[in-house]
Amino acid sequence: MARWWLHLAVLMVSLSLLTGCWDRRELEERTSVLAIAVDVVEGREDLYKLTVQIPIPIKIAGSSGQGGGGNADAVKIMSVTGKTILDANNNLQLRLNQKLFLGHTRVLAISEEVAKKGIGDIMDSFRREPQIRRLMWPIVVKGEAATLLKIKPQLAQIPVVFLMDLIENGAKMGTIPDQTLVDYFNQTSNKTMQPFLNYVQASETEVRWSGVAVFRGHKMVGTLNDIQTWSLLQLRNEDRGGDIIIPLPNPKGGYVTFRPHFVKKKLELKGSHIAGEKNHNGHAATFFCELQGDIVEVTADLNLPPEKFIKQMQVLIKKEMEYRARKLFQQLQKDYNSDILKLGLALRAHHYRDYWEKHDWEHDFKNFPIRVAYTIKIRRLGMEMQ
Question: pTM of the entire structure?
Answer without folding.
Answer: 0.86
